[in-house]
Amino acid sequence: MKKPPYRLILILLVIAGIVAGGWYLSRPKPIAVAVKAVARGIVEASVSNTRAGTVKACRRARLAPAIGGQIAKLAVKEGDKVNTGQILLSLWNDDLAAQLQLAQRETIAARSSADQSCLLADNAVREAKRLEDLRSKGLVAEQQADTAQAQAQAGQASCRAARANVEVSAARTSVARAALERTLLRAPFPGIVAEVNGELGEFVTPSPIGVATLPAVDLLDTSCLYIAAPIDEVDAPQIRTGMTARISLDAYPNKHFAGRVSRIAPYVLEVEKQARTVDVEALFTDAADYQSLRPGYSADLEIIVDVKKDVLRIPTEAVLEGHRVLVYNPATQLLEERSFQAGLSNWKYTEVLSGLAAGDQVVLSIDREGVKAGIRATLEKPEAAP
């Protein structure tokens, strides 16, 4: 009986081992991926501003004197807090102050003259009445009584004229006071002086109609702040006043503020070609949130247009074009592509209506090189909590 070719079998086994080892060593290494299990939670549909919004004061006045003149007194500086009616600056007004003083003295003189005329008129009325009584008894001539009566009426007319002259003098005083007031710049409301343009001795002039010039004093009321942000015209029809909004500020990167939509502009702004926006304003829900904020901060506005609770959801960052995701199969350690039906969506979460089940592990690192359907993968270890 012929012996089996052990040497040949051994050679074949060695070759097979080499081939298997080469395939094992040359096969693609698994790629580490980050995954997130499909779970239930809240999903919101929201819209956000296309460009940075701004924190603004509810009241702001760019003030200038009503007339031109030379600054004689500058009562405030930038950063000062002022009250309603407080003088911010005054122009040289010695001539107007003198005119007011003259008008006040004339009013005093007119009032004294009126008092004198009215006293004489009262005396003439009493004298006319006395003579009329004597005439009725035949003790005084009729002509004398008539003359006294005429003098009494003339005195009363003189009294009325003198009192009218007092009113004229008082009106002239009011005119002089108003002219003097036009040289004073007063705060129309309590606030903070944001900017002062002018120095003592400089001349200021009011802005011509239709021509914007620098304000002498820029006054802000920081007791009330709001957010103004441009929203794309495509998203604007979804927004309604009263909707909940989330406010974020670059100055406070780790904090969000609650707000609500207070105003939607009734027109569209064409800032650039094919870039049209609608200005939307939102108030802070809690006044305490903006006590430390400053007008002029850049801000972002996220407006919640719809909310669904306790629905299946996945991170939006895991969604590929055409509502597709990569799912990690722990049994085969392969990545599988799946399509799903999406519901509400925002930048953070997307609602899953069908196509995925709770517990499915969708891949988050879809932009990582080599990540695609059919490859072997391993799961990244989550970072330890600090």
Explain what the structure shows.
By secondary structure, this protein is an alpha+beta fold. The chain has 4 domains: 28-44 and 309-379, conserved putative lor/sdh protein from methanococcus maripaludis s2 fold, CATH 2.40.420; 48-59 and 224-307, Efflux pump adaptor protein, beta barrel domain (Elongation Factor Tu (Ef-tu), domain 3, Beta Barrel), CATH 2.40.30.170; 68-91 and 183-215, RNA polymerase II/Efflux pump adaptor protein, barrel-sandwich hybrid domain (OB fold (Dihydrolipoamide Acetyltransferase, E2P)); 93-182. It is 27% helix and 38% strand. It is built from 3 helices and 22 strands. A 6-stranded antiparallel beta barrel has the order 4-11-15-13-12-16. The chain has a 4-stranded antiparallel sheet with strand order 2-21-17-18, with no helix packed on it. Helix 2 (94-136) runs antiparallel to helix 3. The longest helix has 43 residues, at 94-136. It is rod-shaped. The mean pLDDT is 86.
Keywords summarizing the entry:
22 strands; conserved putative lor/sdh protein from methanococcus maripaludis s2 fold; six-stranded antiparallel β-barrel; OB fold (Dihydrolipoamide Acetyltransferase, E2P); four-stranded antiparallel sheet; 386 residues; alpha+beta; single chain; Elongation Factor Tu (Ef-tu), domain 3
Count of structural domains? 4
Amino- and carboxy-terminal Cα gap: 76 Å
Q: Nearest-angstrom radius of gyration?
A: 44 Å
Could you say which structural class the secondary elements and strand pairing correspond to? alpha+beta
Kindly identify the CATH topology of the largest domain.
Elongation Factor Tu (Ef-tu), domain 3
**Biggest sheet statistics:** 6 strands, antiparallel, barrel
Helical fraction: 25-40%
Strand order of the largest sheet: 4-11-15-13-12-16
Query: What is the string of helix and strand elements?
Result: HEEEEEEEHHEEEEEEEEEEEEEEE
CATH superfamily heading of the largest domain: Efflux pump adaptor protein, beta barrel domain
Total DSSP E strands? 22
Strand content: 35-45%
Instruction: Estimate the mean pLDDT confidence.
Output: 86
Number of helices: 3
What CATH first level of the largest domain would be assigned?
Mainly Beta
Shape: rod-shaped
Question: Uncertain regions: pLDDT < 50 for 5+ in a row?
Answer: none
| CATH 2nd-level architecture of the largest domain | Beta Barrel
